[in-house]
């Protein structure tokens, strides 16, 4: 099967894997495309299987990534997904190899990515990445870890780490209130945060505060490592699962 890299010239006519069949998220889908167009100028690569499938990888120089990390001279993996019938066909290894090849060509120290100690929604599969040679290089509150895959034995570069704003986060401590941090990195976030979550909280008389990251600088200053979506309640981390926004799922996550 063939793979395709999206760019500013072909993105209008190409799908971006997630959300293409969810009509209610159409505006969010376009917001994700707009985010991609902007990030192409900052070294972002979006490579996918040339099929109508959720098989893709995103990466860019860590200095420009929408992640609260310090990883000079690394490429940072963002979304990396192989789903459904396409699993266990070598697509994950093929896409990861492409990112590694890019890192070598750019004389980078390696790859880095944010995951959870257990599998968190909208973050890459931790166990699979560890099997590919990634190592844990730092930890943050709420079970988030930073993984790195070095491609050079030189020790001249500083080991990647989380920023201090993640290790010692300043969070809203308003009692019995929800806080949602999100960005247009995901085609589901805008709709479900501004519509579904608003409605779910209103129905339960819960105060809701929304914090949207609109630049890499804001995302890098985030108190949470998961800048696609993170939900907090009563000052405590709840989930990275956007489905928690929906009325039918909200009570499973938020215990009032």
Helix and strand arrangement:
Layout: E1 3-6, H1 26-40, E2 45-49, E3 55-61, E4 69-70, E5 74-82, H2 91-105, E6 110-116, H3 126-131, E7 135-140, E8 144-150, E9 161-162, H4 164-167, E10 177-183, H5 189-203, E11 207-213, H6 216-220, E12 229-233, E13 236-239, H7 247-253
Parallel strand pairs: 5-6, 10-11
Antiparallel strand pairs: 1-2, 2-3, 3-5, 4-9, 6-8, 7-8, 10-12, 12-13
Number of strands: 13
Averaging pLDDT over every residue, what do you get? Answer: 94
Share of residues in strands: 25-35%
Low-confidence regions: none
Straight-line N-to-C gap: 49 Å
- Rg, nearest Å: 18 Å
What is the H/E string? EHEEEEHEHEEEHEHEHEEH
Largest sheet: 7 strands, mixed
Structural class by helix and strand composition = alpha+beta
Largest sheet: spatial strand order: 1-2-3-5-6-8-7
In short:
It contains 7 helices and 13 strands. With 256 residues, the protein is of the alpha+beta class.
